[in-house]
Amino acid sequence: MKGRSGAPRTEPRAESLALPMARTCVPRRWVWDANCLTPGTELSPCHRLVYFHTDPVLESCGTASVRGSTGFLHGEHYWEIEFLEPPSGLSVMVGVGTGRAALHAGDFQFINLLGRDTESWGLSYKGSVWHGGTSRRYTEPFYEKGTVIGVHLNMDEGTLTFYRNRQSLGLAFAGLQKVQSPLYPMVSSTSPGTELAVGLQFSTLPSLQERCLSTLAHSLEQTDMVDCLPLPAAIRWLLKSWKDHKGVSVQGVEV
């Protein structure tokens, strides 16, 4: 990839990375979806770079966003977004959203678009995370050109974790498995000159057994309810083990 400055861009080899997923990963090649472009967004020919508010006359008259071409309903997924220019302005965000998430706010609405409602979850470069119209402090702000924000979406456990320059920032959100809808990578910006590039992408896909166990486990309020299910003893044991191992309970980060 090349940025508008013409600087060559390279991606690291997978075997040289410590990825957050424990299981074997497969590379992905999704891009920004050209079918959902909104005013204020422009894509590179390869659709892996997005430029915001490029009109030299209008500049920015609101908040624009774009989503990825692939949504995720199962499995673990990790991707990286690189800031080709220093983030600035009221809001530049990285996150995820459903197919119903808002992609644009015009009429000079300069807002934190990702997380303004219950259809999206976002991290602002100013260090806060947003969902359902509310925010909380999550990390220190980042202003540097070349900052890489990693996104680890675990649809099996329903968690979303962000990374900065491959260092985990901790759990941002939990309970995303309740959404029961594909979640798409998203970015948004209010600022002219914002340039964001899709970098490394990897996924792990669960087996059919793991998907069934995950669905059952998330449907049960308590582990001891497993004994009431009309299932073979071996399956009940697997389900108990899965629920005990995979259970997530983190205060302050539920959907």
Structure, explained:
- Belongs to the SPSB family.
- It comes from Xenopus laevis.
- There is one protein chain.
- The chain has 255 residues and is mainly beta.
- It has 2 domains: 20-204, SPRY domain (Jelly Rolls), CATH 2.60.120; 208-246.
- The chain has 2 helices and 15 strands.
- The chain has helices spanning 208-219, 233-246; strands at residues 26-27, 41-43, 49-52, 63-67, 76-83, 92-97, 104-105, 120-124, 128-131, 134-137, 148-154, 159-164, 167-173, 184-189, 195-204.
- Strands 1, 2, 3, 5, 11, 12, 13 and 15 form an 8-stranded antiparallel β-sheet that branches.
Write a concise synopsis of the structure shown.
The protein is mainly beta and 255 residues long. The chain is 10% helix and 31% strand.
Mean pLDDT: 84
Number of helices: 2
- Helix/strand-derived class? mainly beta
The tally of domains stands at 2
The CA-CA distance between the termini, in Å, is: 35 Å
Return the CATH class of the largest domain.
Mainly Beta
Helix fraction, binned, reads 10-25%
Largest sheet: 8 strands, antiparallel
CATH H-level name of the largest domain... which superfamily?
SPRY domain
Under the CATH scheme, the architecture of the largest domain is Sandwich
Order of H and E elements = EEEEEEEEEEEEEEEHH
Protein name: SPRY domain-containing SOCS box protein 3
Domain B30.2/SPRY: 10-207
Pathway: Protein modification; protein ubiquitination
Family: Belongs to the SPSB family.
